[in-house]
Amino acid sequence: MNVVFSPVALADLLEIGAYIARDNPTRALRFVDELEAHCQQLGQAPGIGVQRPDLAEGIRVRVKGHYLIFYREDLHGVRIERVLHSARDLTPDDLKRRDAR
After folding, report:
1. Is residue 98 part of a domain?
2. Pairing mode, strands 67-74 and 77-85
3. What is the DSSP string of 43-54?
4. Fewest CB within a 10 Å sphere: which of 9, 25, 51, 89?
5. Residue 32 burial (CB count, 10 A)
6. Considering its fold, how many domains does the chain have in total?
């Protein structure tokens, strides 16, 4: 199944990488690669994430370390909507669709 990243999710990955790179640039690159690989695995088994209807319809979440990968499955495949730190106080506004596929 195809996995695509929303522009907001791509920006999340860049922000995560920049934050980690302040202390360890090498680890930042590896960790963002690990996050992306974790996201790509959702194409193999999209149902493994936990449903979060309290945040948005059809949204699921998968955990990678201290980060939450929010995604949806549709006819086109899996769309990664956001990648956020688990310490955030999340609201439905954090997961509103801001762009078209």
Report:
1. no
2. antiparallel
3. TT-GGGSEE-TT
4. 89
5. 18
6. 1
- Stated as kind and residue range, the H or E segment containing 8 is helix 7-21
Per-residue pLDDT tens for 2-53?
999 999 999 999 999 999 999 999 999 999 999 999 999 999 999 999 999 9
Residue 35 lies in a domain: yes
Alpha-carbon dihedral sign for residues 13, 42, 98, 85: negative
Closest to 60 in 3D by CA, of 80, 40, 38: 80
Nearest to 2, CA basis, from 80, 88, 58: 80
CATH number at residue 22: 3.30.2310.20
Distance (Å, whole) CA 38 – CA 36 = 5
pLDDT in tens, 62-97: 999 999 999 999 888 999 999 999 887 777 887 765
